[in-house]
UniProtKB/TrEMBL annotation:
Keywords: 4Fe-4S, Iron, Iron-sulfur, Metal-binding. The keyword Cytoplasm does not apply. This is 4Fe-4S ferredoxin-type domain-containing protein. InterPro entries: 4Fe4S_Fe-S-bd (IPR017896), 4Fe4S_Fe_S_CS (IPR017900), DUF362 (IPR007160), PSI_iron-sulfur_center (IPR050157). The keyword Transmembrane helix does not apply. GO terms for molecular function: 4 iron, 4 sulfur cluster binding; metal ion binding. Coiled coil: none annotated. It comes from Pseudothermotoga thermarum DSM 5069. Residues 288-314, 315-344 form the 4Fe-4S ferredoxin-type domain. It comes from the Bacteria. PROSITE patterns: 4FE4S_FER_1, 4FE4S_FER_2.
Length: 347
């Protein structure tokens, strides 16, 4: 198994750099198959904001599949906003129109059992396809530390079903176990991470854009995520999904093709203290919590609506920290970056 690191300084060069590597995976597909291409379509942000997978990367993947006689579809269930709107703003709608590729909203859930979690409600549409190609984005994530190939498949859970999982899982470790379960169920045959431009700091939506100059490809999403951590000089055990993948023996031996490496500023939420046993209460006092900036907030109410713990009261611009489970969904969905992540002790 190989993890390919393809240096790519700008999106104009994607076709030239990525296509030859994809062609090495042609034997994974058979003409006439229906393939779901799953980008990261977190929310309606423009390509230059580096929140969603760049349309150029999606375009090259779709062209590659079409040239093999495949019927590709682009599908996701965004964290908020309609799929149509997110596709349009992200530039992927135009690509779909140009290539006559249908878009499919990943809704209509069915219950599927994972290794750890039972009755995971995943879009039934995922199972209508012969194969899935996972086209993720290289970004930090305030809850999971990084969002790469494995985390991207949480988009196969319909939007309305997502928030309940933050409550059910309770801890970041459990949430990572859910994400690994979903990745195993969806079982993408190929994963591609767009890191030409990505995000560092407090991602996945309101961090700092960073040019990493890389696209990463592998048939194994667990090895891919692990390899990216090492090349970013990030301890794989810090990234919850990678730690869980290692614990389950999913990061098999792999070889590397390509010599890319870089660095990344991690979110301020990365724990610096042990959070088990009697120290847990102390850690909770100094862990980062969300705080609404009254100056930046436009009172769109998205955070209040999406908060799984119902901890946000916008009538008072207030967050109930007794209810808050530190999932940082509010920070992720805020379209204005109006949620700061501050130490509770300073509030
Ligand atoms: S999502 Fe952001 S802008 Fe909208 S109400 Fe919440 S804090 Fe304010
Ligand atoms: S306030 Fe924000 S971090 Fe706290 S539970 Fe709600 S969405 Fe999660």
């Amino acid at each position: 198994m190989i993890v390919h690191f393809i240096k790519c300084e700008d999106y104009q060069a994607v076709e030239k750099k990525l296509l030859p590597v994809l062609e090495g995976y042609s034997s994974l597909f058979s003409p006439g198959e229906k393939v779901l291409v799953k980008p990261n379509l977190l929310s309606a942000r423009k390509p230059e904001e580096a929140v969603a997978t760049h349309p150029k990367v999606v375009e090259v993947v779709l062209r590659f599949l079409k040239d093999l006689g495949i019927f590709p579809y682009v599908g996701d269930s965004p964290a908020y906003g309609s799929l149509q709107k997110v596709l349009q703003v992200s530039g992927i709608w135009e690509v779909c129109q140009k290539l006559s590729v249908p878009a499919v909203e990943l809704n209509e859930p069915v219950e599927v059992d994972g290794q750890r979690y039972k009755k995971i409600r995943i879009s039934s549409k995922v199972f209508d396809f012969d194969k899935v190609v996972n086209v993720a984005k290289l970004k930090t994530h305030s809850q999971m530390v990084l969002t790469l190939a494995v985390k991207n498949l949480f988009g196969c859970v319909p939007g309305i079903e997502k928030s309940g999982w933050h409550i059910r899982c309770e801890t970041n470790e459990n949430f990572a176990a859910l994400l690994v379960d979903i990745c195993l169920i969806v079982n993408p045959v190929l994963s591609i991470v767009d890191g030409v431009e990505g995000m560092e700091g407090n991602g996945p939506a309101n961090g700092k854009k960073k040019k990493f100059g890389v696209i990463v490809v592998s048939s194994n999403p667990f090895a891919l995520d692990h390899a990216i951590c090492l090349r970013l000089n990030v301890d794989p055990f810090l990234v919850y999904t990678v730690r869980e993948s290692i614990a389950r023996g999913l990061v098999k031996d792999y070889s590397i093709d390509g010599d890319w490496s870089s660095s990344i500023e991690l979110p301020v939420t990365v724990p610096s203290l042990p959070v088990k046993g009697p120290l847990r209460q102390i850690a909770r006092m100094i862990v980062r919590v969300p705080k609404i900036s009254k100056k930046e907030c436009i009172r769109c109410k998205i955070c209040e609506e999406k908060c799984p713990a119902k901890a946000i009261d916008l009538s008072r611009s207030d967050i109930d920290y007794k209810k808050c489970i530190r999932c940082y969904v509010c920070h992720e969905v805020c379209p204005r970056g109006a949620i700061e992540l501050v130490r509770r002790i300073f509030i």
